[in-house]
Amino acid sequence: DIAPRTPVAEPEVVPSQPLAGAVDPREYVVGPGDVFQLRFSGRLTGATVLQVGPEGTLYVAGVGSIAVSGRTLEEARAEVLRRIASQFHGVNVDLSLARTRIMKVFLTGPATNSGPLLVPATSHVSDVLPDTLLGPKASRRDIRVVRRPQPGAPVEPDLVADLTRFRATGDRRYDPVLRDGDVLRVPVAMRFVTVEGAVGRPGRFELGEHDSLRTLLDLAGGPLPAAAPNALFVRFTSATQTESLQVAIAEVASGAFNPALRDGDQLFAFYQPRFHETARVGVVGEVARPGTYPIQIGRTRLSELIATAGGFLDRADLSAIRVYRGTGLERERDPELERLLALPRRDMTATEYAVLRTRLAARNENYRVDWRRLQSDPALDLVLEDGDIVRADPIVLSLRVDGEVRRPGLLNYVAGETVGEVVARSGGYTNRAWRGKVRVVRAVNGQTMLARNVRTLDPGDFVWVPEKPDATTWEQAKDVLGVLAQAATIVIAIRSVR
After folding, report:
1. Which stretches within 49-162 are classed as H helix?
2. Residue 225 vs residues 67, 76, 196, 200, 217: alpha-carbon distances, Å
3. b/e string for 420-451 if b means 16 or more Cβ within 10 A?
4. Close Cβ partners of 328 (under 8 Å, ≥ 6 residues apart)
């Protein structure tokens, strides 16, 4: 009957940190600074706030001091309720944790902030040791948690925190809960293993206690879907010598083959070739459904692609279907080609000029296909390659004439016309026209030809009439010397006859 009838003022305490979740009564260990709320109902009604004192006891009026430090929350609650029930009858009592304490732990080793740390009593090792707090040489897998001995209790063995494995798997077994006065000993990382290739997180990992090949695979995030069935396991047998063993990834993942790891062990996981890759080509221009289409390497032909794209439209120029095929040559440096391009034509030998033209032609990625010929000759139906672009241009019903003609510009195409007839329609040659050097650029393939080698023009062709160069003094002198030489020859011949 001496239970408090009015609430006791809440003592001033250090505010607790936000919790990651509900406190587990079976795991949380009570210590000095924890704040409890004691509630009465029944014959007596009220509530009071109690704080665990520095000696680890909880004082309840009418009951006395109850030792709770070092006990789990579940054990402490049971003991307090048992003691109160023995003193008060007909009263319902409930004890709950109102606020967790701030406790002190100690950090030693290669860390940026070693020494005492104030942390919430609910902290795990990972809460206290973020990567930014640990130095570059600090171990993340062999952190020792040394417990302060409790009076009258046996000495507890050190705990081992494996932060790398905890962050990779989320398994709390590798992330112990801290207690008041714990010492975190962070050693220097000295042993490492490596995994490369088709895994989620390839790289170099610190070797932990009891690590196995499956542990390494777990730390690396497991094999990728693109991983080949077999991997290569490499182990050092001496300072410089290694031995290799081919292992099945599935057997490692299942634990059927799971040897313990040693310092320096390496696992190489390979990729499956062309895993989930789809070869594709593009179709643009005068087709019913332009776009990108998947193909089968070595099987899909141009005619199949055009059929899939809905065929050609009426305006398509079937004599000049173009296929652009990237060969990668534009990314390759060719020192000889660069040298020849820098030389004037007059400084080249005939061989060098032939080499220049050959190499320039080899870099051309534009190929012409005559669709009409392809229909009658299946051998011309080329097999497509990944990345090809097929373009169907519209028919161009015009010609272009430029240079030394009287009316340069575009002309309507007339089937069967010759170069001379087209020049005549352009007003004829000017006085400076170099008639022997007239050139035609073919629209079909881009080839440049002398006009005398072109029988008739095609739609889109370009006729270029160059300007006749001025005669130089030396050329005039050569002409004079030539005439004089011929005259001298005639004189000598006449005299010889006489």
Report:
1. 73-87, 125-128
2. 57, 51, 15, 10, 14
3. eebbebbeebeeebeeebbbbebbeeeeeeeb
4. none
How far apart, in whole angstroms, are the C-alpha atoms of residue 70 and residue 60? Answer: 18
State the Cα–Cα distance between residues 432 and 468, nearest whole angstrom: 5
34: buried, middle or exposed (CB in 10 Å: 19+, 13-18, 0-12)? Answer: buried
Task: Please give the Cα distance from 36 to 318 (Å, whole number).
Answer: 90
What is the tens place of the pLDDT at every residue in 239-261?
Answer: 999 999 999 999 999 999 999 99
**Strand 409-412 relative to strand 389-392, pairing:** unpaired
Neighbours of 295 (CB within 10 A): 20
> Is the whole-model pTM more than 0.85?
no
Distances (CA, A) of 99 to 5, 33, 82, 213, 278: 23, 9, 22, 44, 60
> Who's near 136: CB < 8 A, 6+ residues apart?
none
- What is the amino acid identity at position 259? P
| Cα four-point dihedral sign 300, 304, 309, 313 | positive
Order of strands, sheet of 291-294, starting from the edge strand that comes earlier in the sequence: 291-294, 280-285, 389-392, 321-324, 366-369
Cβ atoms < 10 Å from Cβ of 123: 21
The predicted pLDDT at position 365 comes to 76
Whose tokens are 């000295």? That residue is 190
DSSP 8-state assignment for residue 13 = -
The 10s digit of each residue's pLDDT in 359-379 is 777 677 778 888 888 888 888
Backbone angles phi, psi at 484, to 5 degrees: -65, -40
